[in-house]
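FAQ
Q: What does a multi-component entry look like?
A: The components come first, one per line:
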Amino acid sequence: MAADALTMRGRRARPRVRLMPHLTGWGFVGPATLVIVGLSIFPAVWALILSLRDDNLLAPGSFVGLQNYRDLLDDPDLRAATLHTLLYSVLYVPGSLIIGLPIALALNRPIRFRAFYRTCLFVPYVVSAAATGILANFILDPQFGIVNDLLAGAGIARQGFLQDPSQALLTLVMVSLWGSVGLPIVVYLAALQDIPRELLEAARVDGAGAFRVFRAVTLPQLRPATVFLVIWQTIDALQLFDLVYTTTKGQPLDSTTVIVFYLYQQAFQLFHAGYGAAVAYALFVVTLVVSGGALWYARRGEAPS
Amino acid sequence: MKRQWPYHLVLMPLSLLFAAPLVWMLITSFMPDAEINAFPPHLWPSHIDFGGYLKVLTEDSYPRWFGNTLLVTAVAVVAHLVLCSLAGYGFARLRFRGRGVAFVAIMATVMVPTQVLMIPTFLVFKSLGLIDTLAAAFLPWLATAFGVFLMRQFFLSLPRELEEAARIDGCNRLGVFFRVVLPLARPALATLAVFTFLGAWNDLIWPLIAINSEETYTLQVGLTTFAGARHTQWSALMAGNVLATFPLIAAFLVAQRHFIATMSFSGLKG
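Then the predicted structure of the entire assembly, as tokens:
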């Protein structure tokens, strides 16, 4: 540093004037750029290389080309995990929007207790996956859980919930919705408040009923929010891991192994680093294709206007 | 509004249904296990019982995990506030070579999902000797693309005139940043702090991968690992849950307005 300063002074003001803005600029953005790019682009490239090798997590292996990718195409366990992930996503993504939108519409009205309702519905969003998982295991416990006690009190048979292979995945969807429906509510609420009042009033003056106004004005205005939420929630669903890890760990009878959980098992319990990286990349590509497809579809629909 | 009751008819039960699990968690954390496991279960403890809290605070390394998480979260929040606001300002206001490339590179990282990074990051941490240290838990949280983007958008929305006036008065860039810009950025900084607090406090996957020894666990890893060992000791588990969750709920209630504003902001523009 001192040497730099000296040469700078020696060379007089001109080169310094040209260099300084760049140094200042990098001084501001350099540290954050280093951390963010260093901890993602670099590992992402490494993961790509790993996916072409048969490395063990603890010891390097050799280059195997596309063998890992060929293997994952006929891995029955991965196929099962993919199926579970898809089933979960198909229930979770539309579910969160179908629950979120009406609640947002109701909360957009000037009614009493609005802040109370909003707080209650949003608070589960800040609860961690670990706490949510432990709480779900407790409340839904087939023997001791309060939900089964309440069901029994109402004369309904006790359920297995997370411990019943035929119910576990559906129960996970419910728990996820509890924990995350706050996001669609808040996003829709913000979008609703951005709709110009004149638009709604004009429609009403033209004689449109409440339902007609909703279909012809409100819903199209909410389109950007919906596109965002579909993409966001889909990515969220495809990458489901935390809640599975803290509740079922893929059980019972492997009925809740989802892709990222399977990948975690492969890489960190069986130490198949290369194969795990290949699974990760395959999922990455699927995620990109799905979100790109959703964006393309949304743009195409917008084109005429 | 004349007819409010149809809304209340839907929203009231739904809100209570959403709040009920957390209320039940709080109640059972003060209930003796015998009453929790009784049938029919008690809905209210016969007396306030601190057994669960006592067990958690004395038998497990819980206080240690709490301290670990506190440290990780504090480092994450401070680093985020410093690094992201500096970078956000740099990208919003300064002109320099490589600015576009650096910004695009940062934004591109948003697309790379965690699961792609897990394995190589573990290997990097291992070769740097960071496995089983708290640094492994906070390193990914020093700065995020979201934080840089948030601060950049905020600085872009500020009028330039104030800064220019200070520049003309002879203040250098860093002086302008600290004396003029940063005090104006308080709402954005508050939002960023809450988000980072939430993310770092609740993070599970990084510490799970990088930390194996019990005394270095973060709260989330400790809770999860010990939930298995303490199966059916519900009051202790719920006490642990309450201690891990209520700082967040408190932070959320205090910062609710900022928080929700940013959620929707990042939602629509992100």
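Q: Is there any commentary attached?
A: Sometimes. For this entry: Confidence is low (pLDDT under 50) at residues 1-13 of chain A.
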